[in-house]
Specification:
Elements: H1 3-13, E1 28-30, E2 48-53, E3 58-59, E4 64-65, H2 67-82, H3 87-92, E5 101-104, H4 117-129, E6 137-143, H5 144-150, E7 161-166, E8 175-182, E9 192-196, H6 197-201, E10 205-208, E11 211-215, E12 219-220, H7 223-229, E13 239-240, E14 243-244, H8 246-254, H9 259-262, E15 263-274, E16 287-288, E17 292-296, H10 299-316, H11 335-338, H12 353-359, E18 371-376
Parallel strand pairs: 2-18, 5-6, 5-10, 6-7, 10-15, 11-15
Antiparallel strand pairs: 1-8, 2-17, 3-4, 8-9, 11-12, 13-14, 15-16, 15-17
Length: 377
């Protein structure tokens, strides 16, 4: 449908475009898990963001990552976050040898905008140095086809568990029927989003490894969206027809127990990024290289920094703001147009989901209260 046709239909039906976020719907949260005294989000370091940059971490001409530089970035970042002088002592602040750890990767931007295997391998190396065996470490994502495309196994020690919640799209057997969020957005038939069963039954800690990404519905997709939409079923129903309930749904999912309590560390892969058309990368024009890794326990604070990073890049490229709600830039269902033109939206974006998540106690969204430490190697 063309934008002109859409606007005529809106006028005829007297349904205005939303000037602000859609009203927060009634959420029914069902979980038998109880929060711990000090939940992992916002965790030990609320409002703290460590940004480690290295110009030689990736070669833009070949797109090849330098694993040794990444190793140094990881060591510097985790030590700066915790104040420890040795990485092993810093990791011990979050993980114990008895833990079963799930690592939430992001594979939707394959082949280039994914949680870098070099970063994931370094996380696992540190977990094993703490005394965890391969059987205590899970790498997970919702969709098997996306995990298969990235093919993490050759980069990892033997025995690491690679788990896809859906062997085939729409599969439900690997979701927990007793842990879910129920909400009706647009009159859909299936109104439940269930947590991945392994997260509720097997794991004791979660490490979140998102990317630097623009997103057509939520504005950006960072720590919050990666752990929320990547850990529950049936989430894409939240945005359709140009409108999006991502404003409240992302934070609501992230706050569900045991996700909130067990997600103890956020490591955002900013080696590469996508500044338009995310969460995918259908057009290499929108690829860029921040050459950073972000560390923290507060997903809201990191995502607030991410929001400015994406906004600044879009401004430098002459693209409309992620905050822009103008109907003149909205072209419903015109994905091909969106993937060619950074001034085309297919949804009214909701970057305010970050501030909303802060009101749920997931972290600090006020930039005046966020402490950013910049480290350059």
């Amino acid at each position: 449908m063309e934008r002109r046709t859409f606007l005529k239909l809106l006028a005829a039906s007297q349904l205005p475009l939303p000037a602000g976020p859609l009203a927060v719907p009634k959420y029914r949260i069902v979980s038998t898990h109880r929060p711990v005294r000090h939940p992992g989000m916002p965790g030990r370091h609320p409002g703290r963001v460590i940004s480690v940059g290295a110009p030689n971490c990736i070669d833009e001409a070949t797109d090849k990552v330098d694993a040794a530089v990444v190793r140094d970035m990881m060591a510097r970042g985790i030590c700066a976050l915790t104040g420890e002088s040795q990485p092993i002592r810093a990791w011990r602040r979050f993980i114990q040898p008895s833990d079963v750890v799930a690592i939430k990767v992001n594979c939707s931007g394959h082949p280039r905008i994914v949680s870098a295997p070099e970063i994931v391998a370094e996380i696992i190396a540190n977990l094993m140095a703490l005394g965890l065996g391969p059987g205590q470490i899970y790498l997970y994502e919702r969709f098997k086809d996306q995990l298969d495309d990235v093919n993490y196994a050759p980069h990892l020690p033997p025995g690491i568990q690679i788990l896809a919640a859906e062997e085939r799209r729409g599969g439900v057997k690997r979701y927990d029927p007793g842990t879910y969020v129920e909400v009706d957005f647009f009159g859909e038939e299936d109104t439940r989003s269930n947590l991945i069963r392994a997260l509720s039954e097997r794991t004791t800690k979660i490490i979140n490894v998102p990317n630097v990404k623009d997103h057509g519905a939520s504005g950006v997709t960072g720590c919050l969206k990666n752990i929320a939409y990547g850990s529950f079923s049936n989430v894409a129903r939240s945005h359709q027809g140009g409108s999006s309930f991502t404003y409240s749904f992302i934070g609501t999912l992230a706050a569900v127990e045991p996700i909130r309590s067990r997600t103890v560390l956020q490591i955002m892969d900013g080696l590469r990024g996508v500044w338009h058309g995310g969460p995918f990368l259908h057009n290499p024009r929108f690829l860029f290289y921040p050459k950073r890794i972000f560390f923290g326990t507060d997903p809201v604070a990191i995502d607030r920094v991410l929001l400015d990073l994406i906004e600044d890049k879009r401004k430098a490229e002459g693209a409309i703001s992620v905050w822009d709600r103008s109907p003149q830039y909205l072209q419903l269902d015109q994905l091909a147009a969106r993937d060619q033109d950074p001034n085309v939206n297919v949804f009214i974006r909701e970057p305010g989901h970050i501030e909303y998540a802060s009101r749920l106690g997931l972290g600090v969204a006020d930039l005046r209260k966020i402490r950013i430490t910049e480290i350059k190697l």
